[in-house]
Amino acid sequence: MKKWHGKLIATSFAKDQFPPEKYPEIAFAGRSNVGKSSLINLLLGTKIAKVSGSPGKTRSINFYMVEAKNKFCLVDLPGFGYARRDKAERNKWAKLIDFYSKQRSSLILVVHLVDFRHGFLENDILLQNWMKTQGLQSLVVFTKVDKVPTTKRLNYLKKYAGKMFPEVLGPLCVSSVDKTGLDELKGFLMSYIDMKLDKTQKENIN
Ligand SMILES: Nc1nc2c(ncn2[C@@H]2O[C@H](COP(=O)(O)OP(=O)(O)O)[C@@H](O)[C@H]2O)c(=O)[nH]1
Ligand SMILES: [Mg+2]
């Protein structure tokens, strides 16, 4: 699989800080601590996103421009479901994400990261519901699969299958520790972008 190169092009705390909608955007969403930053670093081949043992650190929406077969923007959404911040601040995040997803015609896919050990928790179901009402296409990616023995993984997948909305894509399984599923994820995203864009759109971005 060809290497991707990514660079941070915007860190947005408010809507007027979003970059122009030049490239197709793929947003990464999930609970705090799900392994989002680790995965982004691995995909982009550089320690560009902060990995942290204590959840809830990313408060901004970060936009990474990725040089791949087709150029695109990887959008790092702040993790949700972290209780230790106060309510006013949580509302501010929710509003920012809500605004982003509603106004963004360049947003073509939301990658919903779910910890393989825990499956869909209440917040994940809320996220799926919310994406559905927004008409957003989503892909489920299970993270940290290295934490589950290989012999048990199929049983976990069967257990979770019934909780996934039928219109959601995936699931794919990844690990940032042993790199399981990384090439599959990259391949999937490349095909998805390829499928979504027409010839003129591709000419405009590349
Ligand atoms: N075992 C294992 N640990 C992981 C994996 N990905 C992330 N972690 C750990 O989980 C914690 C949170 O990771 P981070 O990427 O910062 O999560 P984020 O809050 O979703 O951005 C860190 O301690 C990581 O080292 C993985 O695939 N396997
Ligand atoms: Mg993070």
Overview of this structure, please?
This protein has 206 residues and is α/β, with parallel strands linked by helices. The protein has a single domain (5-205), classed as Rossmann fold (3-Layer(aba) Sandwich), CATH 3.40.50.300. It has six helices and seven strands, in the order ββαββαβαβαβαα. Strand 6 (138-143), helix 4 (150-161) and strand 7 form a beta-alpha-beta unit. Bound molecules: guanosine-5'-diphosphate and magnesium ion. The site of magnesium ion has 4 residues, from helix 1.
Offer a concise description of the structure.
With 206 residues, the chain is α/β, with parallel strands linked by helices. 35% of the residues lie in helices and 22% in strands. It has a 7-stranded mixed beta sheet with strand order 1-3-4-2-5-6-7, with helices on both faces.
Which properties best describe this structure?
seven-stranded mixed sheet, binds guanosine-5'-diphosphate, binds magnesium ion, 206 residues, Rossmann fold, 7 strands, single chain, alpha/beta
Q: How helix-rich are the residues, as a percent range?
A: 25-40%
* Oligomeric form: single chain
Bound small-molecule species: guanosine-5'-diphosphate, magnesium ion
Number of strands: 7
Rg, rounded, reads: 16 Å
- What is the helix tally? 6
Query: So, the CATH homologous superfamily?
Result: P-loop containing nucleotide triphosphate hydrolases
CATH topology: Rossmann fold
Shape: globular
The computed structural class is alpha/beta
Kindly report how far apart the N and C termini lie.
19 Å
In terms of per-residue confidence, which ranges show pLDDT below 50 for 5 or more consecutive residues? none
How much β-strand is present in the residues? Answer: 15-25%
Please state the second-level CATH architecture: 3-Layer(aba) Sandwich
Average predicted local confidence, pLDDT: 89
